[in-house]
Design brief:
The structure holds 2 protein chains of 2 kinds. Chain A is built from 17 helices and 9 strands. Chain A is of the alpha/beta class. The relative contact order of chain B is 0.15. The chains are: A alpha/beta, B mainly alpha.
């Protein structure tokens, strides 16, 4: 196949891969709506992206399951990744690059030296710090060592997925490898965008890249350095089952009448009411579906330290420290209230007896 | 209660027994905030428990059960906030029986009294030791209750800020979920509700008990503001008070 590689505009390169300009413009429209921009920005995005020069991108993988890469590469038709792969020059990505071993590592070193301060770095997976960071090494170097070098020299760092953001699954209690997210492993980085979620949504990642390529700056972020266009709203407020929540119609158990009718999954432990994400709007697999639409409650995968804070995934409240796994908060509360009520009944009985046997000569001021 | 039962019916309120004086103890902000708290805690518990675990089945196509529950919860929460705020103000502006020092046993006298109260409830004394305002044990328990109320308001508004995304609320409470995850705040908020229930049971029981044992019309006093106190007890307590505090609040029968 005759694919022009360099010095050709993006739309021409896409055309050579069988993606029409119409599909390219649809992609630009998707990006502008994901970024919550007015429709006219689709044109601005198309103009900005349709350049011959491709910015360099490196994709680092540390303690991960490659789920974010998978999510990116298998995202629908036409694949968001097809656009992103053509928009940028991917110089290093362990899963999809042809080179291996020392050649691969040399490619990364070349980028760090030759494109210093210009390349985009995407980080996937947590970075272990315990015992000198030996629990994740690539080519004999620890993950934290590689991240220090590559991320400090990047123009932009994007931490994709829960692990790269705050350690995710790897950092879940008891966190044996001392895993942390990118910002904690490489302190002082000011150009980090965190895209929490397990996995990240490739449309959101593409939108962040598009925003950067179009406006030459990173999108507005919240206190966790997460873009507001992604993490600005509660899932609950965008949920298609919200009307059932307000009405008071809930799934009581899996597979019941309510589950078949698509009632709210609140009582099944859905974490939509406490999770900020645009999951209901962007959805997955080319906008086909998303967890709550598929009938499963949200597990809050875009929340900080969600494995620890949002579990158990099938109950409303976390496990109470010091009690068994199956003991629910309301059981403790009711039993405690019952004990107090019992104590008061015992007090009443005791006082009746005391009144009966109290010596008459003992006045009310006596002790 | 024999003494008061024989009293004349010409007044709305009970008359004090022989040797007792009628004193105005609870000023209106105390009584008002007390009853707002009672009503709002009941409403907040009923709606809040539904918000935790919906116990009603919605009927019909126009059902709006959770919506109404949340509406009542939020409106009532503001009433509760104002009642607690009024009560906190009255810690500093109120009479000598509701000042902040009545709620923390700091003096040796209050501490000894606390021990006496413990002995009474532990069935180690025949009768309760009289007290015009709160006894030190009651005062300390109310301090715990007001602390719980403040935590409840704090956690509640943090969760509310996440829902309404109001810039003012987020400015005030937006930092909290970074320190304690919103799920644990929710759990604390839920547990404190049971704390209020436990207090409610104990509070009503104790008030009834002391009302009977001391014949002090304690139960009536949260409506009327007046308690019946033995004359010598008043003289003893007034003897310890500074004059400027006592003068305006004593209204004997």
């Amino acid at each position: 196949m005759n694919v022009p590689s360099e010095n050709v505009e993006l739309s021409a390169r896409l055309k050579a891969r069988g993606i029409s300009r119409r599909k390219f413009l649809k992609f630009c429209g998707l990006m502008s709506t994901t970024l919550a921009l007015p429709p006219r920005y689709a044109h601005a995005i198309a103009t900005a992206l349709d350049k011959p020069k491709r910015p360099t991108l490196v994709w680092l993988e540390f303690q991960d399951c490659a789920g974010n890469s998978e999510s990116m590469l298998r995202s629908g038709d036409p694949d968001v990744a097809q656009f992103v792969l053509e928009m940028l020059s991917w110089e290093y990505h362990e899963i999809i690059m042809a080179g291996s071993g020392h050649h691969a590592e040399a490619a990364l070193q070349r980028v760090v030296k030759e494109c210093k301060g210009e390349y985009i770095c995407i980080v996937e997976g947590a970075i272990p710090l315990a015992d000198g960071g030996i629990y994740c090494t690539i080519g004999g170097r620890t993950a934290v060592d590689i991240a220090q070098e590559v991320c400090r020299n990047a123009a932009v760092n994007i931490a994709v997925g829960a692990c790269a953001w705050d350690g995710g699954l790897v950092a879940a209690s008891p966190n044996p490898t001392g895993a942390v997210g990118l910002q904690e492993a490489v302190p002082g980085l000011t150009n980090v965008i965190n895209l929490g979620g397990c996995p990240h949504n490739p449309v959101n990642t593409a939108a962040v890249l598009t925003h950067y390529l179009t406006f030459k700056e990173l999108p507005a972020v919240d206190q966790f350095n997460r873009p507001l266009f992604i993490y600005g709203n509660l899932i609950h407020d965008q949920c298609e089952r919200r009307a059932h929540y307000d009405a008071g119609r809930y799934v009581e158990e899996w597979g019941d009448e309510g589950a078949r009718k698509g009632y709210c999954l609140y009582k099944m432990g859905c974490k939509g009411p406490e999770t900020h994400y645009n999951c209901p709007a962007v959805r997955w697999n080319g906008g086909t579906s998303w967890p709550i639409k598929a009938g499963h409650g949200c597990i809050g995968c875009a929340s900080p330290r969600f494995w620890d804070t949002k579990s158990p995934f099938y109950s409303r409240l976390p496990k109470v420290p010091g009690f068994g796994v199956d003991v629910k908060a309301e059981e403790i509360g009711w039993i405690g209230t019952g004990i107090v009520a019992g104590a008061m009944v015992a007090q009443v009985a005791g006082n009746i007896i005391r009144d009966k046997i109290r010596p008459d000569n003992n006045g009310h001021d006596g002790q | 209660m024999k003494d008061t039962a024989t009293a004349s019916n010409h007044t709305f309120w009970k008359d004090p027994a022989t040797g007792q004086v009628r004193i105005y103890v609870w000023e209106w902000p105390i009584r008002f905030s007390h009853w707002v708290m009672v009503v709002s805690i009941i409403l907040l518990s009923v709606t809040g428990y539904y918000m935790h675990s919906p116990y009603l089945t919605a009927q019909g196509h126009e059902a709006f059960v959770m919506g109404k529950m949340r509406f009542i919860h939020i409106i009532t929460a503001y009433a509760f906030l104002l009642a607690i705020a009024l009560r906190i103000v009255w810690f500093f502006l109120g009479n000598r029986w509701v000042r902040i020092d009545q709620y923390i046993p700091t003096t040796r006298r209050r501490f000894r009294h606390l021990i006496a109260v413990c002995k009474y409830y532990g069935f180690m004394a025949w009768s309760p030791r009289g007290c015009i305002g709160h006894n030190p044990m009651a005062g300390a328990s109310y301090m715990i209750v007001y602390t719980m109320a403040v935590v409840e308001i704090f956690t509640g508004f943090t969760m509310f800020a996440q829902v309404v995304q109001s810039p003012v609320l987020l400015f005030l409470f937006g930092w909290v979920p970074r320190v304690i995850d919103i799920q644990y705040l929710r759990e604390i908020h839920f547990f404190i509700m049971f704390g209020f229930w436990m207090f409610f049971i104990q509070h009503v029981y104790t008030a009834a008990l002391i009302s009977i044992e001391e014949r002090s019309a304690l139960m009536d006093s949260i409506f009327s503001g007046y308690k019946f106190v033995p004359e010598e007890e008043l003289a003893q307590e007034m003897g310890m008070a500074s004059p400027e505090n006592t003068a305006p609040v004593i209204k004997t029968h």
